[in-house]
Write a structure and sequence with these properties.
Keywords: Membrane, Transmembrane, Transmembrane helix. This protein is mainly alpha-helical. The chain is elongated and about 60 Å long. The chain has a domain of 47 residues. Helices cover 81% and strands 0% of the residues.
């Protein structure tokens, strides 16, 4: 997958997660136990990971690309 496509995908995941958190805060669904559990287990960790990827993903890609270079003694 190209870098631009990956960034767009991660951005959409991040926006959908943010919409889910907005729904949790402003809708009466926060009283539902399963919705609260979904927020805690899936949405908040995915928002954290996608946010870090959007912020510092270029450094991670640079480090992984440097490791994948072939070793020639």
């Amino acid at each position: 997958m190209k870098t631009l496509q990956l960034r767009k995908l991660v951005r959409w995941i991040h926006l959908l997660g943010a919409a889910a958190i907005g729904t949790y805060v402003y809708a009466p669904w926060h009283t539902l136990t399963w919705f609260t559990l979904l927020m805690q287990i899936m949405v908040i960790p995915s928002l954290s990971l996608t946010g870090l990827w959007l912020w510092k993903g270029h450094l991670l890609r640079r480090k992984t690309a440097a490791r994948s270079l072939p070793f020639h003694p």
